[in-house]
Amino acid sequence: MTLTSSDFSATSKDSGKVYLFNLLKENLPRRTQSELNTLTDSTFVFTTNARKKGKVVRTKKQFLTRKERKKLNILKLPKQDWKYDELCEMRELWKQYMRNNLNLYPKIPTWEDPNWTNFNITLAKSEFIGAELTVIRSKNVNQVGMRGTVVLETKATFQIVTPKNELKILVKKPSVFTFTLDDMKFTIFGKYAIIRPSERSIKKIKTLLLPDL
Amino acid sequence: MNQMIIKKCVGKDVFERMNYLLQLSNLALRQPGKDAASSLYSHLLVNVSQKAVQRMEPEVKRSICKRCHTLMIPGINSQIRIRKKRLRWKCNKCSNSKLFKTDPSHKLWIDNKEAIVETLRY
Amino acid sequence: MLSPEIWNFKAPDSLVKVEKGNIVNNNCFNTIQKLHHNHLVSVVLPDTLRVPQNICETLKNDCEYYKISNVGLDELVNINFINAFVRKGIFISLSINERIDCDDCMCITPNGFLLLSLTKETYESLGLEGTPSHYYNTKQRYVVSINLLSNHFKPGKKNYDRTKDRLLTLKKMTLLINWEPPHLDICPSSVAKYFDDLKFDVQVCLPDFQMRTNYTIKVPNFTMDNIHEFVEWLGMFSLESDLGGGGESYLSTYETPQPYQEYGQVKFLQWRGFFSSQQINKLLEVLISHLKDEEKPWISLYVQGFSDVVVGWDLQEHHYYTNGDNGYVIVLNSEDYMVYQHMCSKKSYK
């Protein structure tokens, strides 16, 4: 296909030709680019701009091991210096996130709606950091009644900060948690949520679950 | 009454979660003494994106250190230097460096107009 | 396939405890002290024409008990309440309309312990420490005990605050309350006034008293040998059953054991209410003095406790299956006494 100089003008109506022109401009060596407007030859060699493949050097794997992360103090959360009031911003942010996520308007889904399972699945996939959980039932009798903002979630625990500025670690398996959003109350049975938070987004949770400890 | 039909977007909830985690990580950095929390949140962000196979924008991806997964903010927990015509980000936590080219005509694929197929607004 | 044997069950073990002794030692009062919540008291007086007033009055005066509806249990943990009523005098309390094997029950013993018997779900929601019940191998029932008279149980202490907070989450119950004041000057109705001031619905209940006379009754002699038959006769008499005996050989009938005597009049007195062990004590003293004054052959006293109470004998856990051992019989003659108890086995059934 021959490209005449009139085709290279920007006001060309043929968008395909404009696309081709842009493509040529980017991928050709520099010297040819400046001569594009005057070129009549339509064979172009693209390979001169490509870099030669050098020797494949195995780069050292960049990921940190658990020991190294422990050294850097990014494995665990600090136990002191938590302020419950400062986490208020986090809680507001979480509420906005949940409202966007759960599609609560035009109507709050009830168990009769067809998208009830989808609603539950979205809830299970959502993030709990920043929520205000309360333990209502637990086999650990001393943990019943604890309330606080979640700061970390691991496979088997929730770590919360209570209003008294303490960091508490709540075990998921023997407990039942609740949280409220606007005027809805959600209950989570910890027994069925013993999954790493990153995997919770993709793993399917069973549909037949017993509401008992 | 607004009748918004919510368009279907594959993996919307994962994106929302990742976005929220990024905001959390930023928020945690602003408070004193919470850099462990911040790095845990951005580590979780990277894990979620790996498990759900959702890609991130290069801007976001480049601001997370590749080694220790902390959110790098220049001046607070990272250094940026330009040496020998190369841009270098250095993470303060794990002393890991990332080099970038400084070619002004280098364009990312995502910055092309042709790369954007559909924009969904929520 | 062989069908399983569903008829050849052994009856659960039971034990009959008989204690004999001399009245002089005053040991007969020991058994009375062990059963705290008493419901029914019945007395059999043989050969009596006229029952003296003081016997009838003992369990009538100053034996009022109060029924308070819809009380939250945090009211009983209030420090003012504990200081005024539990520390002074004798305070006992029970929850009624709650079944011991299905629902949550509570009781307060005279030594100041608040005891709760809870189902698994209530215990897990409540959040106070307790022990699993002895009678279930699978942990279905838990017993929580709170020491109200402890020195550490004060407002401001973590234990007290947490107990009070958590008890607010329990459902409200209907209680029976009986309080004996430490001095005679203080009226027992002050406890009713306390709850009335807190706007609870308080009902005064008086013990229900019945008296029955039976004429020309064959009464067996009370000797230390034929105790079982004597107690059986007592039971048959109390239930107004047919003591005639003899006659047809097809039906089984009851025959009064020999040797027996015929008395002109035998009186039967019965009180139903909520009595503390102190009040029963007083009644026994009156009966002993009556026995000595009037020279009767013997006197018997039967006391029965509640079926839905958390603790039975000697502050041990009570259960649906141990409902038979909730009472005792005391028979006295001028020198000796006999205490007859039928104890159920404490076996835990799976």
TrEMBL record, chain A:
One Gene Ontology cellular component: ribonuclease P complex
- Tell me the compartments it is located in: Nucleus
> What domain of life is recorded for the organism?
Eukaryota
Note the SMART domains from the entry: POP4
Taking the first listed entry, what is the main subcellular location of this protein, grouped into a coarse class? nucleus
- What's a GO biological-process term for it? rRNA processing
Where does this protein have coiled-coil stretches?
Answer: none
* SUPFAM superfamilies to which the protein is assigned, alphabetical: Rof/RNase P subunit-like
Which InterPro entries does the protein's record reference? Answer: RNase_P/MRP_Rpp29-subunit (IPR016848), RNase_P/MRP_Rpp29_sf (IPR036980), RNP1 (IPR023538), Rof/RNase_P-like (IPR023534), Rpp29/RNP1 (IPR002730)
Q: Name one GO molecular function term.
A: hydrolase activity
Keywords per UniProt: Cytoplasm, Endonuclease, Hydrolase, Nuclease, tRNA processing
Which Pfam families is this protein grouped with? RNase_P-MRP_p29
Q: Note the subunit structure.
A: Component of nuclear RNase P and RNase MRP ribonucleoproteins. RNase P consists of a catalytic RNA moiety and 10 different protein chains; POP1, POP4, POP5, POP7, RPP14, RPP21, RPP25, RPP30, RPP38 and RPP40. Within the RNase P complex, POP1, POP7 and RPP25 form the 'finger' subcomplex, POP5, RPP14, RPP40 and homodimeric RPP30 form the 'palm' subcomplex, and RPP21, POP4 and RPP38 form the 'wrist' subcomplex. All subunits of the RNase P complex interact with the catalytic RNA. Several subunits of RNase P are also part of the RNase MRP complex.
Q: Which family does it belong to?
A: Belongs to the eukaryotic/archaeal RNase P protein component 1 family.
* Role, per record: Component of ribonuclease P, a ribonucleoprotein complex that generates mature tRNA molecules by cleaving their 5'-ends.
The record's listing under HAMAP family reads:
RNase_P_1 (MF_00754)
Question: In its UniProt entry, what is this protein called?
Answer: Ribonuclease P protein subunit p29
Automatic annotation (TrEMBL), chain B:
Sorted UniProt keywords: Metal-binding, tRNA processing, Zinc
Q: Name one GO molecular function term.
A: metal ion binding
Look up the record and report any one GO term of the cellular component aspect.
nucleolar ribonuclease P complex
Q: Name one GO biological process term.
A: tRNA processing
The record's Gene3D superfamilies line, in alphabetical order, gives: 6.20.50.20
InterPro entries reported for this sequence: Rpr2/Snm1/Rpp21
Q: Which family does it belong to?
A: Belongs to the eukaryotic/archaeal RNase P protein component 4 family.
Q: What is this protein called?
A: Uncharacterized protein
**Lineage start:** Eukaryota, Metazoa, Ecdysozoa, Arthropoda, Hexapoda
TrEMBL record, chain C:
Q: Which N-terminal residues, if any, form the signal peptide?
A: none
- InterPro entries, per database record: RNase_P_Rpp40 (IPR013893)
Single GO cellular component annotation? multimeric ribonuclease P complex
Which GO-annotated molecular functions does the record name? ribonuclease MRP activity; ribonuclease P activity
Q: Which GO BP annotation is one of this protein's?
A: tRNA 5'-leader removal
Tell me what this protein is called: Uncharacterized protein
